[in-house]
Amino acid sequence: MDDSRSALVLFSGGQDSTTCLAWALNRFQRVETVAFDYRQRHRVELDQRLVVLDRIRAGFPQWADRLGEDHFVDMAVLGQISETSLTRDVAFAMQQDGLPNTFVPGRNLLFFTFAAAIAWRRNIRHLIGGMCETDYSGYPDCRDNTIKALQVALNLGMDRNFALHTPLMWRDKAETWALAQELGGEALIEIIREHTHTCYRSERDQRHDWGYGCGECPACVLRKHGYESWNARAA
C-alpha cells in the first residue's frame, strides 16, 4: 500500500531539482531524494547536491524533519552507451535531427523508472522531476505527453498508483526563480545561487549574479537569462 503523504524527488543538485525539492517539502510529510551517476561531464553536481541538502536542513527547520533518506544510483552503463556532449568531451552543437547533442537518449525515462523501483520498495507514491517543456532544449523526454505516458506505463508495469509530478513543466526559467523565492524566500534563492550546479562544463571558479558556471554553455545561458528576466520583472 503506497503512502500518499510521501514523495521521492529526482535531485541532481541543480537549480531546477532544488526548486522541485522545496516544492515537495512544502506539500508532503516525508520527502526522499535520489541521484543518478551516469558519468556526466558535470559530475560536480553530485557533490554539490549534498551541500544543498545540508543547507536546506540547516536553513529551513520547518522542512528538516520532512527530509528523509537520500538514494544514489550508479548508472555508468548509460554513459557507456551514450555518445553525447554530456558524456563525452565534445563541443556543444545541434545535430542533423534537430536535437542538441546534450540530449542523452532515454535518460529521464530511466531516471523515473529507477525512481519508481525505489518508491515501490519504500511505499512512496509521488515521484517528482524538474522536466520543463516551456524553457527546455528540445528534449523529447521532457515533454508533458512523455511523462504522462510514462506514468501509465509505470503504474501498469509495477501494479501501483504512482503520481508523476513536474512542477516546472509550464514555467520558464524566470518563473522558476520566482517559484523558488515564493517557496523559500531569499534564503532559498541564496542556496540556489551559491551552492547548486547547472553548468555543463563543471565550472565553479567563476561566480556570477546567478551562481557559478562558465557562462557560455547552454545550461548557463538559460540560467543567466532566466535570472536577468526574473529581476527585470520584479523591478
TrEMBL record:
HAMAP family membership: QueC (MF_01633)
UniProt cofactor(s): Zn(2+)
CDD domains membership: QueC-like
Organism of this sequence: Enhydrobacter aerosaccus
Family annotation (PANTHER family): 7-CYANO-7-DEAZAGUANINE SYNTHASE (PTHR42914)
Any one GO MF annotation of this record: ligase activity, forming carbon-nitrogen bonds
Positions bound to ATP: 11-21
Listed EC numbers: 6.3.4.20
UniProt pathway annotation: Purine metabolism; 7-cyano-7-deazaguanine biosynthesis
Catalysed conversion reaction: 7-carboxy-7-carbaguanine + NH4(+) + 2 ATP = 7-cyano-7-carbaguanine + 2 AMP + 2 diphosphate + 2 H(+)
UniProt: Zn(2+) binding residues: 199, 214, 217, 220
Keywords of this entry: ATP-binding, Ligase, Metal-binding, Nucleotide-binding, Queuosine biosynthesis, Zinc
Residue ranges of the TM segments: none
Name used for this protein in its record: 7-cyano-7-deazaguanine synthase
Function: Catalyzes the ATP-dependent conversion of 7-carboxy-7-deazaguanine (CDG) to 7-cyano-7-deazaguanine (preQ(0)).
Co-factor binding details: Binds 1 zinc ion per subunit.
Organism lineage: Bacteria, Pseudomonadati, Pseudomonadota, Alphaproteobacteria, Hyphomicrobiales
Family of this protein: Belongs to the QueC family.
Any GO BP annotation: tRNA queuosine(34) biosynthetic process
InterPro entries per UniProt: QueC, Rossmann-like_a/b/a_fold
